[in-house]
Design goal:
This protein has 574 residues and is an alpha/beta fold. The chain folds into 3 domains: 10-143, Rossmann fold; 153-302, Alpha-Beta Plaits, CATH 3.30.70.270; 327-566, Alpha-Beta Barrel (TIM Barrel), CATH 3.20.20.
Length: 574
Amino acid sequence: MNGMRGDTSLLIIEDSADDRYLYRRLLAKYQEPFSSIEEVESAEEALEILQHHRPICCLLDYQLPGMDGLTFLRKLKKLWIDDMIPVVVLTGQGDESIAVQLMRNGAHDYLVKGDLTAESLHRAIGNAVRTCSLQHQLNYMAHFDALTGLLNRALFLDRLQLAIKKAERNSHECSLFYLDLDHFKPVNDSLGHDAGDALLQAVAGRIKSVVRETDSVARIGGDEFVVLLENVDVNITRSVAEKLLEEVNRPTHIAEHEVAVSSSIGIARYPATAKTAQELLKHADLALYAAKGRGRSTYHEFSQSQKEIWQRKQALEAALPRAIAKGELQPYFQPIVDIPGECLRGFELLSRWPKPDYPNIQAMELIQMVESLGLMEPFNEWLIDEVCRKAVLWTKEFPEISLSINMPANQFHNSYLVDMFRSKLNRYPIDPSVIELEITETTLMRQPDASIRLLNNLHELGLRIAVDDFGTGYSSLAYLTRLPIDILKIDKCFFLEAQHDERNKKVIETVVALGHHLGLKVTAEGIESDKQWNDAKKSRCDLAQGYLFGKPTPCGSQPLKEFMEHFPRIQRKA
C-alpha cells in the first residue's frame, strides 16, 4: 500500500468473529498485503500488545466489551504520547457527535460497518497512514533541529519549565548554559555553508558527549546552543562549563581542512540568579555577552552587576502606557508578494517603538511588555486603527490590496475583539476583506472550540483569517476543515531547513496540496534567498513574504506608489 514503510502489520481489535472475517476478506483484495494481520477480541489485549509493538494501523471496533472506542483512544494516546498510531474506527451505526469526539482523541477515520467495501476500507487505512506520517514529520520538525537532531527552542522551553517545577518541588538546583561559537561566520564565508553545517553537527555531538543523557541540549539559532543541567550545584556547573569549552574548542577536520573555533558560554542558575524559565534564558544570554566582552573562549556566570539591563527594562515599562496613549508607536510594513504574478499582494503591519534614548527595541520585547503590563486592549485598538486608516488611503490607489495584522496569543479569545472590529469597520469606509487577521496555529489549538466560535464571528464581519506559523503547533489536520480560514502561512523554519533536508520539501508540497484542496491560499514565510524563492514557486505556494522582497519599513503618510520605491524587487499590479 502506498505510504506504508517499515513494519506493515495490521492490528484488528474486534470482538465479533464474523466482522473479523469480513475485514480479512476485504483486506485480501489489496494488491500489496500487510506483512501480517493480528487479531484480538478485547481492548485490554490490544493495549497489552501495543505496549511493545507499533503496527502500521489499527482497525478498532467502537463498542468493545468493557471499554468503548473513545476510552481506548485516550489510553492509547497516553501509551504512545510522542508517536500516535493510525486508527480507523468501525461502528454498527453512524453518529456524527461520536465521530467528532473520536477524531479529537486521535482517530484518523470513522466507518460504518454496513457501508464497508474493500475500496472504502483500503482508502481509509491509506489516508490514515499518510496523515499520521505527515503529522509525525510536522511534529518532529516542530520540536527538533533538522541539521543537528537536537531539541529546538519550543521543546527546550517545555523541558526547562518542567525542570524548574521539579527543582522547586524537590529543592534542587539547575543550571542553564547559553553557548555560541566565536568567529563562526568566517568558516561559512571561507569554506562554504556545507562546511559550516558540518561544524555545527560536530559541535552538537561534542556537547552531547560532555553532558548526561538526562540533560537537555538544543540549538536555538545559527550557531547558538543551550544546555540544561538538572540537580547540579555550582561546582559541578563550573566543571561542566570547563569541559564544554575544552571539547568544543578542539580543532575539527572538515573537507580536508582543520577548522579551529572557540566558544563562549553564559550561565544562569536556578534559584540563585533566576526564578523562571524566561529569566534563566535572559540571564544566561546576558552572561554570554559578558563572556564575549571578556575576550571570548570563556564562560561567565550571571551576577547582579548586570542590573543596567533591568534598569532599562523598568524604564521602558514605565514609559510604554504613555507611548500608546500618545500615539508614539509606529507601524512598519513588510510586503507580501503574489507568486504567480511576481507582484505586490499586500503588506503585513508590524508594530515598532522608535525611542531615541533606548534604541533597538525589538518587536518581541515590545509585545512582551504590552502583555505583561496589561495593555493589550489599548494596543490592539491602536493597531486596528492604524490598519484601517492605511486601508482607506491605499485602496484608493490599489483596490485589491490586503493588509494583515497579528493577533497576540493571550488576547485572542477575548470577545471584545469582535466588538472592536465591528466598531472600527462601521467608522472607516473600507471593504472588510482588505484586512487579514493572523493567528498562530498554537494559539488556535489552546482552546480549539472557542477558536472556531471566535473565528466564525470575525469571519462574519467580512475579515479574512490566516493561520500563521503553520506546522509548528500540535493541531490535528482534521481541524482545518472546521476552521473558517482563508490562508495558511507555512512557517519559515520549513523553507530554512529545506536547504538541508529533502523531507522538508515534501512536507511543504503536501501542506500546499492540502491547503489548495481546502480552497485556501498558502503563503511561504521567511523567504530570504533566491533558492528559497525558487523552492516556494516549485512548491506551488500562492504568496511569499521575507527579507528577499523587503524588510519591515515605516511609511508615514506616503502614498502607496511612493512607498513602493522602498521595494524595487516588487512590481505593482497593472
